Structures are given as structure tokens and as C-alpha cells.
Amino acid sequence: QVQLIESGGGLVQAGGSLRLSCAATRHTISDYPMAWFRQAPGKEREFVAGIWWSIRWSGGRTYYADSVKGRFTISRDNAKTTVFLQMNSLKPEDTAVYYCAQSGTTAFGFSSRDYDYWGQGTQVTVSS
Q1: Alpha-carbon gap, residue 42 to 102, rounded angstroms
Q2: Which residue, 20, 25, 34, is CA-closest to 4?
Q3: How far apart are CA 1 and CA 116, in angstroms?
Q4: Between 20 and 30 A from 116 (CA), which of 27, 49, 66, 103?
Q5: What is the pLDDT along the chain (128 residues), one digit of tens a residue?
Q6: Is residue 121 within 8 Å of 109, Cβ to Cβ?
Q7: Residues 6 or more apart in contact with residue 97 via CB below 8 angstroms
Q8: Which pLDDT does position 2 carry in this prediction?
Q9: What is the Cα–Cα distance from 72 to 6, expressed in whole angstroms?
Q10: Sign of the dihedral defined by the CA atoms of residues 42, 44, 49, 52, in that order
Q11: What are phi and psi of 92, to 5 degrees?
């Protein structure tokens, strides 16, 4: 069974940076899309960024929500077991619990319903 463990959240001032990590246990990250979602109090869980590797295009494809383009970067390590989310120029509206997720199918989706495995979440708080 897939286990995803997030880390790296915390409190930061506006304009600062944080790096989130998502470690996949018991298997490597390959062929199945990975994504970061976030959920603020009283709001629905929303897509933040995604990454998908496949031998079909010999590498990874990345996807971002418009609200984080140019500020956040999703990547993975060479061992194919950890996905990162580098968050720069953070804003108070980025405050949320951030979740790592993996799809159980080889197709990319932007909805939380497209993902089968989830981490426990890590809190990111950006103060103004």
C-alpha cells in the first residue's frame, strides 16, 4: 500500500519561502501522477501543482494552478521516491494545509477525485 509522508510546513512571513517534501514509502514514484493540493479553513481542497513522469515523453511534465505560477516549483529527486514543492514569494492567501497525493492510474487530473492516495497534510501559515 502507498504511504505518503509530508514535511516542511511552518510559519513564514509574506515574501518568504518554504520547501515541502513528500516521501513515498514502499514504492517509487514513477508513471503515476503526483500532486500537491491545499485546503484553507472553510474552503474546498484545491489543486496547487502536479508532476507526471512517463517513458512516453522521457521525462516529467509539470502543471500549476494560475495562482502559484512563477512562484512555486514542483520537482522530484533522482531516487524517484520524494516529490518537492518549492514555494517562493509566499502570500497570506497561501495559508492552508498542504497535501501530497498520488493517482492510482496513469492519467493526470486536476481534481482531488483523480487521486487515490493522500498524505496527512502539513500546515503552511504565511503572516502579513
Answers
A1: 24
A2: 25
A3: 11
A4: 66
A5: 788 999 999 999 999 999 999 998 766 566 789 999 999 999 999 999 999 987 777 778 999 999 999 999 999 887 778 999 999 999 999 999 999 999 888 889 999 999 999 999 999 999 99
A6: no
A7: 38, 39, 40, 121, 122, 123, 124
A8: 81
A9: 16
A10: positive
A11: -55, -35
User: Which residues contact residue 42 at a Cβ distance below 8 angstroms, ignoring those fewer than 6 apart?
Assistant: none
Phi, psi dihedral angles at 94 (to 5 degrees)? -85, -5
Cell (9 digits) for 18? 518554504
**Confidence at residue 122, expressed as pLDDT on a 0 to 100 scale:** 97
Q: What single DSSP character describes residue 94?
A: G
DSSP SS3 for 117: strand
Sign of torsion over alpha carbons 49, 79, 61, 4: negative
